Structures are given as structure tokens and as C-alpha cells.
Amino acid sequence: MSNGEQYHILIVDDEKANLDILQHVLKPHCSVYIAKSGEAALKIAQDSLPDLILLDIIMPGIDGFEVLARLKENDATRDIPVIFVTGMTDPASEEKGIRLGAVDYIPKPFHPVIVWARVQTQLKMLDRLRELQQIDAAFGFVPHLPNRPHFERVFLTEWRRALRTKSSLATLIVSVPIQGNDTAQSVLDTLRKSVRRSADLVVRLDEKRFGILLPSTEDRGATTIADEIRTRLHNSHPDLKPVDVETMSFSPDLEQDPDSFLANLG
User: Fold this and answer.
1) How far apart are CA 32 and CA 38, in angstroms?
2) What share of the chain is helix, strand, coil (3-state, %, to 5)?
3) pLDDT tens, 19-71?
């Protein structure tokens, strides 16, 4: 993670004791904004665009659920990650928060060490996403050319979505010997015919490998698509041998590091 001075975190809570503890945890590492109501939080988020928001649920005026919903409705603030820090510990409230788009849910009373660890996880992912976005902006996206940074950026975005929704995420790595961009484009077209949802991504990773990202897909679905890919490639490109399709499906959790999965791509 980069120097914490670049990060700006908004803490939203109407209880002074909680604000004092959270400020004590975060101020050595980040710049901190404070809001004691939902209305104030929305204004600060709009004006300052913090990197991360720690949000209580039970507050005077509009509650944390409504604050998050409004943040997601606003183009300027919808991508700011939000961690709920709340005394509402029942499963229904946690599920509601995650479905609204929170990236994490920390119950009160909280342990400062745990809060900082969860914050670090989100900031590390934010760092990586920004780095990949800069690479994308610098080099653009040409479908038939290798574009691993684009694959990694979308992977991290879908990883965060899977954390929120507690769903599975699958990747397929297709290794096939190709020669020339015309063949690469033809293989890409064949692979795209094997996936059917707009959220599915097919990208050329390097000279001989293609990556396929399948949100909300478990092992069985990934295996079915892998079998279809082998059949389609054999029928449309019988001269391309051998073809290897490696599948991996997992349900992300906060104890896992998404970079470790990306590192396995080689």
C-alpha cells in the first residue's frame, strides 16, 4: 500500500466515543473527515470525494442504509467503497447492507486492530485498481492485442462485487498456440461465442493465453463453458493444437488476497 497520506477517509457516526476511537486508529495513516449525520455525510462525500467511507447505520435523520443508497445513485460517489461500522449485528441488517453495495460490515463494539486491517484491505485494492486504470488509459484497449491489465482491473472490480453479494467468481485460462493478430482475433471471436452474459469478459492475456472472467459462476458452470470452448475451438480451428483450458472458481472472502489469485496467472 502506498503512503497513507494520499488517502482521505470519511467517518460517519453520531457518537463522539466512536468517532474518537476511529480517528485515533486512522489519523496516523490517513486524512480524516468527520460527519455526525447522514445529511452531512452526503455533502462531504459530494464535495470531497473520499477514498473510503466508514458509515454507521443508526443515526438521527436519514440512516446509514439511506445514505449508502443515495451514494450509489450519484455518479460522482457511487464507486466510493463503504464499510458499515454498526451496532446492528443481526444477519438481516448485514445482508441488506451488503446488497446495497457495502464492501464490508464491521459490528460494534469493534476492535481497532480489526478496523485498520479491514481498511487496509480496501485501500490496497483501491491502489491496484488505480494503477490498472492508469495503464488502461495509457495504452488503450485493442481487442486482439494482449491486455492483461484490463483483465486484472475487471477482476478486482468483480472480486469486490462478489464480496458484497457473497457470490462465486470463476476464471478460465485458455492456452492455445496462435500466430498473428488475425488468428488471435478469430480465436477471441470463438471464445466470446462461448459466453452469453454481458458481464462475462474475454481478454487476450499474452502471446498464447486468453483469460475469461465469469461473475456469479461456480465450478459446474465454469466446467460446462470450458467443455464448450474446447469443442468450439476444435471445430473452428482444427489446426490449433493442443488447446488447454484451466478453470478456477472461488467465493472471495476478506481473509483472501486477490493479488495472490492474479499471481497464479503467471
Assistant:
1) 17
2) 50, 20, 35
3) 999 999 999 889 999 999 999 999 999 999 999 999 999 998 999 999 999 99
**73 three-class SS:** helix
Cell of 125: 485494492
Q: For residue 206, what are the CA distances in angstroms to 32, 145, 149, 201, 203?
A: 41, 8, 11, 15, 9
**The C-alpha cell that represents 127 in the structure block:** 491502489
User: b/e for 242-252, b at 16 or more Cβ within 10 A?
Assistant: ebebebebeeb
Instruction: Judge if pTM exceeds 0.85.
Output: no
Q: Is the dihedral of CA 246, 226, 129, 186 positive or negative?
A: positive
Residue of 197, 224, 213 whose CA lies nearest to 250: 213
Inform me whether the pLDDT recorded for 8 exceeds 80.
Answer: yes
Pairing of strands 8-12, 52-55: parallel
Q: Is the Cβ–Cβ distance between 183 and 191 less than 8 Å?
A: no
Cβ atoms of 74 and 46 closer than 8 Å: yes
Q: Pull the grid cell for residue 165.
A: 453479494
Cα–Cα distance between 244 and 123 in angstroms, integer?
36
Query: What Å distances lie between residue 122 and 52, 75, 117, 245, CA to CA?
Result: 8, 20, 9, 31
State how far the Cα of 82 lies from the Cα of 71, in Å rounded to an integer.
9
- 139-153, 195-209, 218-232: the lowest-pLDDT one: 139-153
**Phi, psi angle pair for 191, to nearest 5°:** -65, -40
